[in-house]
């Protein structure tokens, strides 16, 4: 017989005071319990004009993650363990294994639990496979009608639901639930010894009703438009060097997330440590916020994975560093308030400081003005994957769609381009901010210390004083 998470977590909630008493010791600061039920589903369809289909599904997979993590904090150090499932008897045994001294009694106000486990009625697990297949097929049909010469097309549809229960000796018990879907159309093309690979992504938080806002056909259209732009572009044959760079808003915020956002997490050494709070770190027009309350944000939740309410935290206010993101441990370590940024991939791993939805607020300039001010530089319309190298103070991002800026105008489209720079100077190098602020709620996965969590990014078009623009094979 299948039981819902609500039914299964009920006995654990009743047993929580005893379990935390067994986990807590006289030397302990905080005992914590985190339980989750997470469902993942992925469907992938691939069209290859040189191969015949035996089955339209190349890949269909589901996965269920359910279990309970326990954590004991003692003198700033963390002891973490996990048990599969929600059986209070097994979790008591794990608590005894983790405790580092004689147990002590704790009292919990179980009646003051906050939050909800409710999910939308059209989450991915409640919709038939035939309905999901129809979404994929409509995306394939749209792409092939727009570009019949396609060599290879892949459509990927994935989603997840997560329900979580958190209780500790420091915070009231919390319940939270979330549903996310994502839809990716990827097109590959061979032409004149060139291999072109582009993609477009849609989806967001909630159920399949998201596709009323942006249909699979529209996502395919965006993908094909990027492919056709890439076909017209010339591969960059030599490094351009250090030039002003304009980065378009929306998903362009992933550059800021990687290059700057991690440095604003309290456990990351670098340019923006807690000791610098109050310092001028950027121009007057730069305001950066991490907003865990953002409507439809992929990183949004009622509570973080330590049971603390997520917040809107102003990190940089008109160029002044006002805060850094914290979890329970980092807040204690630095004597700072908690900001609701304690997040974990799943119950098997301890929480750490993570961004939720990182946003650079809009400015007052026109996008065309920033392009004009760049004079001779480079324009990034669509940014791709990237990597940050903290020990080298360096980042590198591939550009899916970009253009030369010559005489203050967009001119030649270029491919095979990468932009690189130094994270420690990025905030100071933002010298222009447009008024076209946009959020991309449809994609964003952040990896840190081998843990991945969903995030959103948002920003307007920005002008960066200079980045290195170079050729990449």
Query: What does the overall shape look like?
Result: globular
Query: Count of helical segments?
Result: 8
Q: What's the helical proportion of residues?
A: 10-25%
Which spans have pLDDT < 50 for at least 5 consecutive residues?
A: none
Terminal Cα separation, in Å? Answer: 55 Å
Keywords:
8 helices; alpha+beta; six-stranded mixed sheet; 19% helix; 473 residues
Describe, in plain words, how this protein is organized in 3D:
By secondary structure, the chain is α+β, with helices and mostly antiparallel strands. 19% of the residues lie in helices and 40% in strands. It has eight helices and 25 strands. The chain has helices spanning 5-23, 88-98, 129-146, 216-232, 253-259, 328-334, 367-374, 426-429; strands spanning 30-48, 57-74, 77-84, 114-115, 152-168, 174-191, 194-205, 234-235, 241-247, 288-291, 312-317, 320-321, 342-343, 352-353, 357-360, 377-389, 394-406, 409-415, 417-421, 430-433, 438-440, 445-448, 451-454, 456-459, 462-471. The strands form five sheets. Strands 1, 2, 3, 4, 5, 6 and 7 form a seven-stranded mixed beta sheet that branches. The chain has a six-stranded mixed beta sheet with strand order 12-11-10-15-24-21. A five-stranded mixed barrel has the order 9-16-17-19-25. α3 packs parallel to α4 (216-232). The longest helix is centred in the first third of the chain and has 19 residues, at 5-23. The protein is globular and about 70 Å long. It starts with a helix and ends with a strand. 47% of the residues are buried. The mean pLDDT is 92.
């Amino acid at each position: 017989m299948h039981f819902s998470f609500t039914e299964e977590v009920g006995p654990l909630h009743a047993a929580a005071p005893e379990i935390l008493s067994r986990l807590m010791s006289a030397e302990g600061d905080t005992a914590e319990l985190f339980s989750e039920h997470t469902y993942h589903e992925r469907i992938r369809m691939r069209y290859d004009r040189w191969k015949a289909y035996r089955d339209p599904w190349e890949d269909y997979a589901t996965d269920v993650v359910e279990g309970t993590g326990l954590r004991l904090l003692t003198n700033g150090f963390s002891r973490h363990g996990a048990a599969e499932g929600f059986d209070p008897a097994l979790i008591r045994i794990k608590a005894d294994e983790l405790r580092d001294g004689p147990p002590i009694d704790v009292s919990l106000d179980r009646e003051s639990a906050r939050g909800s486990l409710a999910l939308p009625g059209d989450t991915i697990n409640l919709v038939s496979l035939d309905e999901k297949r129809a979404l994929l097929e409509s995306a394939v049909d749209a792409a092939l009608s727009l570009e019949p010469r396609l060599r290879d097309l892949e459509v990927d549809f994935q989603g997840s639901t997560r329900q979580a229960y958190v209780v500790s000796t420091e915070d009231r018990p919390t319940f939270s639930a979330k549903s996310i879907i994502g839809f990716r159309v990827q097109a590959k093309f061979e032409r004149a010894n060139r291999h072109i690979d582009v993609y477009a992504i849609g989806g967001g938080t909630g159920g399949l009703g998201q596709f009323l806002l942006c249909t699979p056909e529209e996502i395919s259209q965006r993908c094909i438009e990027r492919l056709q732009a890439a076909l017209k572009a010339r591969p960059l044959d030599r490094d351009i060097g250090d030039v002003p760079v304009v980065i378009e808003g929306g998903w362009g915020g992933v550059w800021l997330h990687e290059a700057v956002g991690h440095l604003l997490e309290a456990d990351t050494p670098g340019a923006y440590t807690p000791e610098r709070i109050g310092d001028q770190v950027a121009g007057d027009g730069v305001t950066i916020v991490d907003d865990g309350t953002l409507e439809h944000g992929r990183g949004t939740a009622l509570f973080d994975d330590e049971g603390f309410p997520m917040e809107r935290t102003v990190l940089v206010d008109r160029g002044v560093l006002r805060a850094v993101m914290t979890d329970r441990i980092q807040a204690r370590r630095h004597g700072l308030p908690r900001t609701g940024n304690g997040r974990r991939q799943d119950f098997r791993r301890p929480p750490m400081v993570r961004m939720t939805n990182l946003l650079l607020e809009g400015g007052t300039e026109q996008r065309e003005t920033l392009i004009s001010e760049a004079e001779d530089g480079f324009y990034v319309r669509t940014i791709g994957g990237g990597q940050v190298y903290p020990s080298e103070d360096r980042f590198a991002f591939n550009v899916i769609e970009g253009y030369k800026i010559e005489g203050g105008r967009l001119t030649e489209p270029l491919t095979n381009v990468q932009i690189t720079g130094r994270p420690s100077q990025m905030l100071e190098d933002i010298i222009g901010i447009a008024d076209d602020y946009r959020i991309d709620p449809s994609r964003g996965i952040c990896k840190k210390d081998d843990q991945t969590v969903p995030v959103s990014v948002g920003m307007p078009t920005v002008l960066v004083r200079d980045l290195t623009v170079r050729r990449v094979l």
